[in-house]
């Protein structure tokens, strides 16, 4: 008899969940709505949202007349919100409050800004776009880049400056950046703006994996945060990595689960929608043929 347990932090983080709910509600009230860029990097969730009337567009200029635009959790540059405002476009800002906090920090700072993050990531582009002086901003991917930047003496050693991190920046890379920054700059103020959602998901995954006979990790094959969850789980038990559950086969499960009972844990990456996690739970219940599976199927049949 197996007990199937899904990690509470599996799937969307607070900020993405919030943005998706805002878009769903707006589409329900107005018939449709448009998001500036895709709300989430997950094709099936985008397709699900489109069925509900939530459509992604690339530019505010593509917004059909009379419709509402949603700014996604990553946030955007100030020039973008100014443009939307000047055009009189109806807009709901679903920027994650943790990202908005970084916008607030950099927009208030009169000194140069170092951002630890990926310069091509929409969140970082948005943060750069809230800095007072774009010429006095440096985005570094890691401590090596920070080291090189410091050696070029872009910012004088003793001048005041601040450093923030992309919310999803890797925490050990961040610690190295802090060390390098403190070595080169004597008057630097560092704001730890890494969001705890990723760390919490990883911690809970590890705790669950430790007491599980098998872990099922759900997420896109190219999702690095899901791969990380699989890697963490693997330290404690065998792991099945699945995109949506359809590729889980019974033979592989029974091979990995020689024990007659125990806990099977389910965790999921940050871009995995709740309905996919539920579907994987259902598939696992069915495969393991426990009562939970039968109950769940009975519920599905009733609907
Ligand atoms: Fe998500 Fe917001 Fe954190 S979008 S990862 S809760 S910064």
From TrEMBL:
GO CC aspect terms: ribonucleoprotein complex; ribosome
GTP-binding is among the record's keywords: no
Binding residues for dimethylallyl diphosphate: 41, 74, 121, 223-225, 271
Keywords: 4Fe-4S, Iron, Iron-sulfur, Isoprene biosynthesis, Metal-binding, Oxidoreductase, Ribonucleoprotein, Ribosomal protein
Residues that coordinate or bind [4Fe-4S] cluster: 13, 96, 195
GO MF assignments: 4 iron, 4 sulfur cluster binding; 4-hydroxy-3-methylbut-2-enyl diphosphate reductase activity; metal ion binding; mRNA binding; structural constituent of ribosome
Gene Ontology terms: biological process: dimethylallyl diphosphate biosynthetic process; isopentenyl diphosphate biosynthetic process, methylerythritol 4-phosphate pathway; terpenoid biosynthetic process; translation
Binding locations of (2E)-4-hydroxy-3-methylbut-2-enyl diphosphate: 41, 74, 121, 167, 223-225, 271
Keyword Iron tagged: yes
Catalytic residues (positions): 123
Residues annotated as binding isopentenyl diphosphate: 41, 74, 121, 223-225, 271
Function, as annotated: Binds mRNA; thus facilitating recognition of the initiation point. It is needed to translate mRNA with a short Shine-Dalgarno (SD) purine-rich sequence.
Recorded family membership: Belongs to the IspH family. Belongs to the bacterial ribosomal protein bS1 family.
Annotated protein name in UniProt: 4-hydroxy-3-methylbut-2-enyl diphosphate reductase
Organism of provenance: [Eubacterium] siraeum DSM 15702
């Amino acid at each position: 008899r197996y007990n199937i347990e899904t990690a509470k932090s599996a799937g969307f983080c607070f900020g993405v969940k919030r943005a998706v709910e805002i878009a769903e509600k707006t589409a329900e009230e107005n018939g449709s709505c448009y998001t500036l860029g895709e709300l989430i990097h997950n094709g099936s969730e985008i397709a699900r949202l489109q069925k509900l009337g939530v459509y992604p567009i690339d530019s505010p200029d593509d917004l059909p007349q009379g419709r509402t635009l949603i700014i996604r959790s990553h946030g955007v540059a100030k020039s973008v919100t100014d443009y939307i405002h000047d055009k009189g476009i109806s807009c709901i800002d679903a920027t994650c409050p943790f990202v908005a906090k970084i916008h607030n920090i950099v927009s208030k700072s009169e000194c140069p800004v170092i951002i630890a993050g990926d310069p091509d990531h929409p969140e970082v582009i948005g943060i750069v776009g809230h800095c007072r002086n774009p010429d006095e901003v440096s985005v570094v991917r890691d401590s090596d880049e920070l080291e090189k930047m410091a050696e070029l003496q872009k910012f004088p050693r003793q001048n005041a400056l601040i450093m923030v991190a992309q919310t999803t920046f890797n925490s050990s890379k961040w610690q190295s950046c802090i060390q390098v920054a403190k070595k080169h700059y004597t008057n630097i103020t560092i704001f730890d703006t890494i969001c705890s959602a990723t760390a919490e998901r990883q911690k809970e995954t590890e705790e669950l994996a430790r007491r599980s006979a098998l872990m099922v990790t759900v997420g896109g094959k190219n999702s690095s945060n899901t791969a990380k969850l699989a890697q963490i789980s693997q330290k404690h038990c065998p792991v099945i990595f699945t995109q949506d559950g359809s590729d889980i086969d019974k033979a592989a499960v029974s091979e990995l689960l020689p024990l007659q009972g125990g806990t099977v844990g389910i965790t999921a990456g940050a871009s995995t929608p709740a309905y996919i996690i539920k579907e994987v739970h259902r598939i696992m219940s069915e495969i393991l043929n426990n009562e939970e599976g039968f109950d769940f199927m009975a519920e599905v049949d009733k609907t």
